[in-house]
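Field reference: sequence -> structure
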Amino acid sequence: MGNPKSGEAKPLSAVAAGHLCLDILPNFEQLAQGQFETLFKPGRLIQVGAAQFSTGGPVSNTGLALHRLGVPTRLVAKVGADPFGKIVQDLIAQQGADLIQGVAVDAAAVTSYSVIISPKDTDRIFLHCPGANDTFTAEDIPFEMVEEAALFHFGYPPIMRQLYINNGQALVEVMRRAKETGVTTSLDMAYPDPSSESGQADWPLILKSVLPYVDIFLPSFEELLFTLRRDLFEQMNARGSLLDQVTPALLQDLSAELLQMGVKIVVIKLGSKGLYLRTGTASALKTMGRAHPLNCESWGDRELWAPCFKVNVAGTTGSGDSTIAGFLSALLRQTTSEQAVTMAVAVGACNVERPDALSGLRSWEDTLARVNAGWDRLMVDPEDSGWHWDASRQLWQGSLDGSPKI
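Structure field:
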C-alpha cells in the first residue's frame, strides 16, 4: 500500500451527476439457499422480511460514498414531485443538508425507482422505472457549481434516454460543457437491456463522440465490451461468463482504443477479479484539469491489476459505484496510482459486506487502516509471462507498465 500517511491531505472537491433513483430492497434472509428459483413462480405468495429503502444510482452510490470518504461533494440529479421523490430527498438530506442543493424537482416527471431482488448466492434482478432520469439534459446541471469543483463525475447515460438518443448529442454537450469549466471529468456506464432502445443505440459512435471530453473512463468489463465491441460481446457471452474469459491481451486492446479516443485514465471493473488500470502519458495527464495527479510522471504509462480483498459478501448493490468512489477519492487526495487502485477495491469490498449500497462503507481513514493491517486478497493470476507480481503492494504490474518492477 505504501506510506500510510500518504493520502491524508484534505481532498479536492467533486460533483456527482446523472442517474438517481430510489432503491427498494426486499429482505430475503428467510429464504434458504437455492429456494429462490423454486419459489418464484406465478401465483405464489412468498413471505419476505421488511423492505429497505435507499437511494440508488451513481449520484447516490458514488456521490454519497465520496462524501462518506471525506470528499467535499455536491450531487446533481432530478426527481419527481411525488412520494418517492420526497423519500429520496429525505434520505440524501440525512447524509448532509448541503448535498441536496443540486437535486431538482420536476413536477412533470415521476421519480425513478428500482425494486432490487437480491437473494444470497443469486444474481440480482432489477425492476426499474427510469422516471425523471429519462428527461435529464445539460440544462438540469448548475454549471456554476461545477466551476467550483475539481472533479465532475457523471454516471449511467445508457439508462437516461435524452443522453443516448440522437447518437448521444446531449451527453456530448454535458461532458463538453463540464470540461470547459476546467474540471477533471469522469464517466461511468451502465449495462442496458440489449433489446431496448438504449441497447440498440450506436454506442461505438457515441463513445467516439463523447470520450474526447472524458478524462477518466470507468466502465465494467461487461459494459465496455457491450458498448465498444458488440459482436465480440455476443460471441463471448454465448460461451459463458464474460469475466471468466478476461485476458490481459483483451484488456490491453480495449484500453488502447479508449486512450486513442482521448481518455487519459482507463479503469475497468472486473467484478470478483478486481480492477484494471491503464493510463496515458504524463504529458496527457497534465491536461486533465483541476484534479490531475499530483505527480503526473509517476502516474503516466501505468498498467496495474488490483485483486479484490476477501470478505463475506452480503450483496453487490452499488459495488461498482463504491469502487469508483474509492478510486476517485484517492485521486482527489493526490495519492499514487498504486494507492488509488488499492483503495478502489478496498472501498468496493467494504460495500459488499452489507446488502445495500452505503451502510458497509467506512471512512477513508478506517478503510486505509484496514488495508494497512494486512487485509487478505482474493488472488488472481493474469496468466501472462509479461506480468509481474509486486508483493509489497499486492498488485500486478502489466507488461505495458512503465514503472520499474519491484
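Note: The domain at 14-19+57-111+131-397 is CATH 3.40.1190.20 (UDP-N-acetylmuramoyl-L-alanine:D-glutamate ligase).
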